[in-house]
Amino acid sequence: MLNLINRVVILTIHLIPKFFIKIFANQYVAGITTKDALKTVKRLNDQGFAVTLDILGEHTNSKGKAELITKQYCDILAQININNLDCNISIKPSHIGSDISNKLLMKNIRILHEISMKNNNFIRIDMENSELTDLTLNTYKNRYISENNIGVVLQAYLYRTEQDLLQLKDGSNIRLCKGIYNENQSIAIKIPDEINSNYIRLLKIAFKKHIYVGIATHDIHLIKKVLDIIDKLNIDKSMFEFQMLYGVPMGNSLDNIITKKYRVRIYVPFGEDWYEYSIRRIKENPNISKYVIKNMFLIK
Ligand code: FDA
User: Does 88 contact ligand 1 (Cβ within 6 A)?
Assistant: First the structure.
């Protein structure tokens, strides 16, 4: 019954007024301004977490806006340095210009990469839908020379990912996630257990290639398997970190990780374009219907 109600909520969520979605969004988004976001970074750092900051938004359709976002990221990198925060940045290619031209994307990534190196920091290129996989990987490879402060994301649900991983240089830096976009079954695994098996296969390959892995999942079963592998293969703490999304309850999975004193980084999104991201997160919440009903009740 709960599953059915959840499915109905997922199918109708776009019909819910934006002001109402904003109430749910507050769980997953750290405010609108850079100042809001940096406050959250400081609070999380004080609790022992590293952070990666993401300015929300995607598919920017003007060169001017893509440049403004790039500049905002540059200012954030400077602020992180001045305030001595443990925080890097995550960037979506379509947010900084890939819909306009590959050249603009490359230029903006180059600016961000150079500024981040100047500030002794690191940039992560997020992975969007499969139409952008080649462009994203090429952009990363173009900037990656050796261990030089840049990383990319690979998605365990794509069949192609194993080949993509094998083609990365040893010593690269990836975030490994399951993948969030609704891809066609001809290119993406659809069965949750099979995605998890592929995740583990990919993780082992990455460790073998001395690739640094941001292990990005909240899935307690998967995390248990990952912890086993780390133990069995005796993987050094310097070769990985766990990554989780701001606002997603972490419960037992986090306890297990923290007991081992492994590094945990929280992905903190913020900004005016909070809607699409929040919808994605709300749809992934297994308690979505309970949550919606509870918040409706609070509103009254
Ligand atoms: P799964 O979806 O199976 O969730 C496991 C458990 O976590 C659930 O049973 C539930 O208990 C809890 N949970 C998960 N989401 C929740 C929510 N929203 N609210 C409440 N509870 C929730 N994807 C992508 O395509 N490109 C990218 O660049 C990134 N980047 C990224 C960074 C980081 C740090 C993370 C953690 C994830 C991403 N993702 C991503 C998203 C990722 O691909 C995936 O969609 C989500 O992490 C959910 O998958 P899980 O691995 O958590 O498992």
Answer: no
Residues 89, 95, 98, 104, CA torsion sign: negative
CA of 251 to the centre of ligand 1 (A): 14
| 3-class state of residue 8 by DSSP | helix
CB of 92 within 8 A of CB of 269?
Answer: no
Residue 297 CB burial class (10 angstroms; 0-12, 13-18, ≥19) = exposed
Token look-up 């961000």 returns 112
Mean pLDDT (whole number) for 184-209: 98
Check whether residue 104 and residue 148 sit in a common domain.
Answer: yes
Q: Which amino acid is at 110?
A: R
Catalytic residue status for 280: no
Tens-digit pLDDT profile for residues 208-224:
999 999 999 999 999 99
Q: Does residue 278 form part of some domain?
A: no
Residue 175 falls in the annotated catalytic set: yes
According to DSSP, residue 169 is labeled: P
Domain count, the chain: 2
